[in-house]
Design goal:
The complex is a heterodimer of chains A (137) and B (391). Chain A is mainly beta. Chain A has one domain. Helix content of chain A is 6%, strand content 37%. Chain A has a five-stranded mixed β-barrel with strand order 4-5-6-8-7. The two termini of chain A are 20 Å apart. With 391 residues, chain B is α+β, with helices and mostly antiparallel strands. Chain B has a single domain, classed as 3-Layer(aba) Sandwich (Peroxisomal Thiolase, Chain A, domain 1). Chain B is 31% helix and 17% strand. Chain B has helices at residues 29-43, 64-71, 90-102, 144-158, 163-177, 192-197, 225-229, 270-280, 297-306, 315-320, 338-341, 348-359, and strands at residues 9-15, 19-20, 53-57, 78-82, 108-116, 200-202, 205-206, 214-223, 236-244, 289-291, 371-375, 383-390. In chain B, a hairpin with a 2-residue loop joins strand 6 (200-202) and strand 7. The chains are: A mainly beta (137), B alpha+beta (391). The A-B interface holds A 4, 8-14, 17, 21, 41-43, 45, 49, 68-75, 77-78, 80-81, 84, 86-87, 89-91, 99-105, 114, 125, 131, 133 and B 124-126, 128, 132-143, 145-146, 149-151, 153-154, 157, 199-205, 248, 250-251, 255-258, 264.
């Protein structure tokens, strides 16, 4: 069972972020890193903001992240979330990946706080598409 | 250097009726916008033939070239549109108009925004095609209230900011709206108990922390100082304008929140504020009244800090002392009721209120106001601000 019903908006990869979603389809959460100066960046963008190189590799994130901030959402701005209220959207960071913040959901918890550790899980939304979400440890 | 005669001035302001979203059903958004522009031109004692430029922001769909036809404007010498969605470009559109006038591209430019959310789409709902949508929509991060809430959550974690401080922004704005017959929420009082018992939208934001969704349009006429001098009406000078963004914002809170750490709990205006005060030759202490872009209460607190009215993390204490109240406050803010309680015209109604203050025409008039700060949309890129002065 995926977290949201199938009417939930799905990622529609484009040429700039295809690498991210390709990794996700293999259940790997990976972020863009400059091949020349190793600066991490997100969301994906074709040029390194530090050294302007266009050479990238995708660096895998660890399974454990940390809550940088969050909101518990009580209002359905899309019909797909009407039965899931309230749900949590969190800004997740990884001590190993400086400069990266990632928007995701935190499930299986009633309490959440800034600094809390969370573990990655993969939400199978069908057709080979997997969405990276997190749960309380 | 700008010559004194080229210093741009606001000579006219105009607005449509403001209603709740879906309230305007008898004419199109385009017509509502055209009528707001005509009202601003009349207010300036000018004719539509005098307009030679149009400026807007946020991909306003009331296209300037169609507006030229509709209003019978013979020659257009300037059009501009500030990049980016959201209201971040409201004051930026004024900055571009001023730059065009100072450089001699055009003489009389209308800045306008028409936004009937009942006819287009409600901003509180999911919108297709958002930039970086792939990194927000599949997670249920759909609307600006949800997207800016984590900034305020973190702000309240890092500094002594409480729900009572958020409440003060909402209550102060509502009290001002109660004196303003144009305000959508003008006839509805709001007290702290009602605020605290209102429903959550996206924690820590409650219903009354979020701006209205409305129908309406607003416009501003800007011309040269020289031309302004020949007009019979009151003149307000644009003492300074600045718009832009700090490093690394991109889609910022409306995307993956990858702003620099030191700017996370900010409105993306630290550099704009420095530029603005330096250009005007003023300090925050010289500002008599301010109109902060109040889409969400907590960002107004951050703006008080970013624009230097108090130190980092001190905005809670600043508002708790009554400083933003119309009665007795050191810096009355959002004197029309703002976007929380007057109407949400993407910040152009805030510019109009700034002009009214300096003309002595506000329904919550600050006595003898000489200077007014107006900001663009906060916590987005680009953002910006204006310092208006009484001539």
């Amino acid at each position: 069972m995926s977290l949201f019903p199938e009417t939930m908006p799905r990622p529609e990869p484009n040429m700039d972020d295809a690498g991210f979603w390709e990794a996700c389809s293999n259940r790997r959460l990976a972020f863009q890193s400059c091949n020349d100066c190793h600066t991490l960046r997100h969301p994906p963008t074709p040029v390194c903001p530090k050294c302007r190189s266009t050479h990238v590799h995708w660096q895998e994130a660890p399974e454990i992240g940390e809550i940088f901030s969050f909101t518990r959402i009580h209002h359905a701005s899309h019909p797909a979330v009407s039965d899931q209220l309230p749900y949590i959207v969190a800004i997740v960071t990884f001590p190993e990946l400086p400069g990266i913040r990632f928007i995701s959901n935190v499930t299986e918890t009633d309490s959440i706080h800034i600094g809390m550790q969370v573990r990655l899980w993969w939400d199978d939304i069908g057709d080979g598409v997997y969405i990276p979400r997190f749960k309380a440890i | 250097m700008t010559s004194a005669t080229k210093k741009p001035c606001i000579v006219g302001i105009g607005e449509s009726e403001f209603t709740r979203w879906g309230g305007i059903t008898d004419c199109s958004q385009f017509q509502v916008t055209a009528e707001a522009i005509l009202a601003a031109v009349r207010d300036a004692n000018l004719d539509p033939e005098d307009i030679d430029g149009f400026a807007s922001f946020s991909n306003d769909s009331n296209e300037a070239m169609l507006m030229q036809v509709a209003l019978g404007v013979p020659v257009v010498r300037w059009t501009s549109m500030v990049w980016g969605g959201g209201g971040g470009g409201s004051t930026g559109a004024v900055a571009q108009a001023c730059a065009a006038i100072e450089a001699g591209h055009a003489e009389t430019i209308v800045v306008y925004r028409g936004l009937c959310q009942g006819q287009t789409r409600r901003f509180g709902k999911f919108g297709q095609g958002r930039t970086h949508g792939n990194f927000v929509s599949p997670f249920g991060f759909f609307a600006p209230a949800q997207m800016l809430a984590p900034l305020i959550q973190r702000f309240m974690h890092d500094y002594p900011i409480t729900e009572l401080h958020l409440a003060e922004i909402a209550l102060s704005g509502r009290a001002n709206a109660n004196r303003n017959p144009r305000a959508v929420m003008g006839g509805r009082e709001l007290n702290l108990d009602q605020y605290l018992s209102s429903r959550w939208i996206a924690e820590p934001l409650r219903l009354y922390d979020c701006c209205l969704e409305t129908d309406g349009a607003a416009a501003v006429v800007i011309t040269t100082r020289e031309r302004a001098r020949d007009l019979p009406g009151p003149v307000v000078e644009v003492l300074a304008s600045a718009h832009g963004s700090g490093p690394g914002w991109g889609t910022g809170p409306l995307g993956s929140h990858n702003m620099p750490d030191e700017d996370y709990c900010s409105t993306n205006n630290k550099q704009n504020a420095r530029t603005l005060f330096a250009k005007a030759g003023l300090t925050p202490g010289d500002i008599d009244v301010a109109q902060f872009y109040d889409h969400f209460s907590g960002l107004v607190l951050m703006a008080l800090e970013d624009f230097g009215f108090c130190g980092q993390g001190e905005s809670g204490a600043f508002v708790e002392e009554g400083n933003i109240r119309w009665e007795g406050g050191k810096l009355p803010i959002n004197t029309s009721g703002g976007q929380l309680s007057e109407a949400y015209v993407h910040g152009v109604n805030l510019i109009n209120e700034g002009v009214r203050q300096l003309r002595g025409q506000s329904t919550s008039q600050v006595k003898d106001a000489q200077t007014c700060l107006v900001t663009g949309g906060l916590g987005v890129a680009p953002s910006g601000g204006l310092i208006l002065g009484r001539v």
